[in-house]
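Archive maintenance. Older records in this collection stored only the sequence; we are now back-filling the structure field for every entry so that each record is complete. The fields below show one back-filled record exactly as it appears after the update. Entries are processed alphabetically, and CCA-adding enzyme is next in the queue.

ARCHIVE ENTRY
Title: CCA-adding enzyme
Organism field: Lentibacillus kapialis
Length field: 398
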Amino acid sequence: FTKQFRQAIGVLKRIESYGYDAYFVGGCIRDLLLHRHIEDIDIATSARPEVIQEMFNKVIPVGLSHGTVIVRYDHQSYEVTTFRVDADYSDQRHPDSVHFVKTIDQDLKRRDFTINALAMDKTGCLIDLFDGEKDIQKRIIRTVGNGYDRFAEDPLRIMRALRFSSQLGFSLEEHTLKAMQFVISELNAIAVERILQETAKFFAGPYIKTGMDFFKWLHLEKHLPVFKDNPAIINRLPAHLKPLQSFGAVIAMLHVAVPAISIDTWVKQWKCSNKIKNEAESFNEALYHYQCSGLSPWLIYKLHTTGHSDFTLLVNMLFDDHLSEQTVHNMAHHLPIHSMHDLAINGTDLRRLFPQRQPGPWIANTLKQVEKRVVTGHLSNDKNALKEWVKWYRHATG
Ligand code: ATP
Ligand code: MG
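Back-filled structure field:
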């Protein structure tokens, strides 16, 4: 066990002390066996959520109807879910209801892939009913039970299989792949928000090349929003795809690859959040500036700070360039200001400077001019210098 797991054993022990079963389960066991970084440790238990709420001081009821609560324990959070099976997938969007069950075996059986259907008790003993450990060694993704049934039950699993291939570099086992091919048209019944989540993880996977090979083999492009109306997009993608962490960067890439499809089209049809939309636009603008005049302080300033790495990858993929992320970081580091807040003058200063003027859009406009000149090094970020310049500027522009 890693330190992360040792810290969590207390949760299992506490639940067991009340006479219930509890296990570490799912992706965290897969990642433990793969020596991968573990984001969160999930726990499955025979105790009902109400009972878990009695056992711990701090429990957040995040998904009571699905049997899930978050337990705070020793300054960490754990998702604790009651053993369950999904009762009905009839609308294919979300299970209509869940049935709680008595044993971990039943709970593992409802899980999607053998590599995800693993559990471990507090002593480190593995519960592996479907040869998940062997599949991890063989580096393959295989459904628990009959693939046709499992993908038909929840076609989102098709997207999940692909994203795991891109995240882990695993192959899709032969029967699993055939079943995916057979059921793939059912994807159109799945809510686009759920597809988006898996697609974003797909494009962020370190083995995106492996994932993309399966994507193409399955002709997934015929079943995804926007792609299905323009299946040729897939041939216009950069030859050497690199994993992009932001889905906004993915959209910017797709837009640059096929400019006839606007960012707005992608954002609307994929029902993206405003955050993704803003990031897509910011990347697109930065790419445009880069194409016109290379790297500049203004470009870096406008690019959101979490976007440096994706931006570098986009430039290299789309323009066959050799930009290094360090170059971008260095330029960002040497920027005189990082946001409007860092400017040595603000709106109040401007109003004091021109007491006779009514407050209005001129304030924001003037600050924008100052901002641009400071970022590009044409003005130094010094209060007096900026005041002088503003006086001159307002005089000159009236
Ligand atoms: P990640 O590290 O990306 O979170 P994960 O394996 O934890 O990967 P989750 O989406 O968090 O993936 O799901 C947690 C677990 O729940 C999975 O490991 C799997 O056992 C089960 N699971 C999730 N979604 C499904 C599904 N659609 N069908 C069946 N089982 C699922
Ligand atoms: Mg998870």
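Update note: The chain has a mean pLDDT of 94. The longest strand covers residues 76-82.
Entry marked complete.
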